Amino acid sequence: MLQAERRNKILELLNVSGFVQVSELTDILEVSVETVRRDLEYLEKKEKIKKVHGGAILENFDNLEVFNIRNKEYSKEKEEIANIAIRFISDGQSIAMDSSTTNLAIAKKLKSNFKNLTIVTNSLLIALELSDIENFNIFSTGGKLIPSQYCFIGNIAINNLDNFVIDTSFLSTSGISLSSGITDYNFYDVDIQKKMIDISNKTIILADNSKFDKSALVKVANLNEIDLIITDSNIDEDILNIYKDNGVNIVYN
Length: 253
Known about the structure:
By secondary structure, this protein is an alpha/beta fold. The protein contains ten helices and 15 strands.
């Protein structure tokens, strides 16, 4: 497919769904992540699209529309993952949560399942979601606000995380592979995630079945730095067995 055809195809897909993921585009267009990113950068410069976490939206979409689209993606799988995740939390613990929509699903469940938690997050929405629970101690990282993601990034956020020693961090990912480990598409997300791993006694990765055997652009961690991966029941059994045979701890039910 020629360059112009690829870029027109991206716009066609956006006109249908409003949001496309980089991982989807690499499969559909049969090109590398780097090629997709160059195409998206070109279309953004032409003011046709906006680049957002893991993909792109049409230029005329507002931030709330972007977030709602992301939040609806794999909603059943996120619910499954959230239900499993709360089994690994106990009252009195401290947890760190990145700004993923899966963590927002977990946050909603924390309200009705726990009485006393300390939560550290770079997500504005998670902080607001939990702000009315009397015995929850909520700490926001602060930092530079990314409006389309409702999250904080940058050196202020990273330096503030250094003040904490956390029991368990819950982190999302764009890709998991035996060769590349845990990867993501955005440098600013990765810096926060790396710091959360550093300050946590235990790290749990949240990943729906579509994230396996995928490599994104930026390395977050090696698989041996991760204590557990939580996924959904649609995970391919062959993939599951390969990862387990390689010593990766995965829970899906």
